[in-house]
Automatic annotation (TrEMBL):
Lineage of the organism: Bacteria, Bacillati, Bacillota, Bacilli, Bacillales
Highest taxon, organism lineage: Bacteria
Pfam families: DUF4183
Name used for this protein in its record: DUF4183 domain-containing protein
Species this protein is from: Paenibacillus oenotherae
Domain DUF4183: 48-113
Length: 136
């Protein structure tokens, strides 16, 4: 018995639009810490100020390990007596700020840490039509 096959051609046309709406939010979080350099902070041409020597914006003393460090999307600035210092002269960790020079006793040091949190959400709406024509 022979098999009969039907041979048809189909052509589809896709038309319409897809609309994508994205809402992005970037929120900065700023922390500022203030300390005064004392004799014990200076050793061998380097100034190391422990976290416990700093106060926060609210005036409260920080605990050991209480400094905020920037995330991969953040940064920090160091001001000595109100003057912004060059990048690379200091190292900030949760436990201390190390400045690669000996500062004067009594100098005011301010650390400003800025971190960013971002979120994004997208929605899509499609208005697609497919028309298929079958011919023999």
């Amino acid at each position: 018995m022979a098999v009969i096959k039907i041979h048809l051609e189909a052509e589809s046309v896709v038309s319409g639009t897809i609309t994508i709406t994205t809402v992005t939010s970037v929120v900065p979080t700023v922390r500022r810490y203030t300390a005064t350099v004392v004799l014990g902070n200076i050793l061998g041409g380097t100034t190391t100020i422990p976290a416990t020597s700093f106060t926060g914006d609210n005036g409260a003393a920080l605990p050991a390990g209480g400094l905020t460090v920037p995330t991969s999307s953040g940064y920090y600035n160091v001001y000595v007596n109100g003057v912004l210092q060059r990048s690379g002269l200091s190292t900030l960790s949760t436990t201390s700020l190390i400045i690669s020079t000996a500062l004067l006793i009594g100098a005011s040091v301010v650390v400003e840490v800025v971190n960013f949190t971002s979120t994004a959400s997208s929605t899509s709406t499609n208005n697609i039509a497919v028309t298929t024509t079958i011919t023999d």
